[in-house]
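Running this now, will post back.
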Amino acid sequence: SFNQPYAVRAATKIEEILDVETELVKGGQGEFSVLVNGEIVAKKGWIRFPSIDKIITNVRNALESQIEECR
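Update: finished.
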């Protein structure tokens, strides 16, 4: 099922720390994926969700990589 509380916490932290907009989209049962411009940067494993710190790091890296590509 959609783990809204964790998804909301993660989205809120991304917005607060990285100052970017997020969008929550309901996925399939048990799915939790974080995408940056269509690319998966973090997702739930068989049992565990990625830590919010890991999500922030991966989103930041993906955003920085995209900025570099635009230069």
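The two ends are 41 Å apart (CA to CA). More later if anyone needs it.
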